[in-house]
């Protein structure tokens, strides 16, 4: 006998309709979600191409992020001292 209970079982969630929404997904909803995701992807690819055209490189971005992390760590230590 399986003691597993559905997450939508006896528990009264403060978020109404969450479980019903997942089970009620239709092919149209999925198709719309795919369309939106493809549009977002196209936008991101466009932004990447614009940045590359401006001369930005991935290595430069990684270096910048590393320097920001270092700055934040130093700033946190300074705040702890104060």
UniProtKB/TrEMBL annotation:
Coiled coil: 27-54
Keyword DNA damage found: yes
Any one Pfam family match given in the protein's UniProt record, by short name: Swi5
Keywords: Coiled coil, DNA damage, DNA repair
GO biological process: double-strand break repair via homologous recombination
Record InterPro entries: DNA-repair_Swi5 (IPR010760)
A GO CC term attached to the entry: Swi5-Swi2 complex
Keyword DNA damage: yes
Role of this protein: Component of the swi5-sfr1 complex, a complex required for double-strand break repair via homologous recombination.
Family, as annotated: Belongs to the SWI5/SAE3 family.
The protein's name in its UniProt record: DNA repair protein SWI5 homolog
Organism listed in the record: Patella caerulea (Rayed Mediterranean limpet)
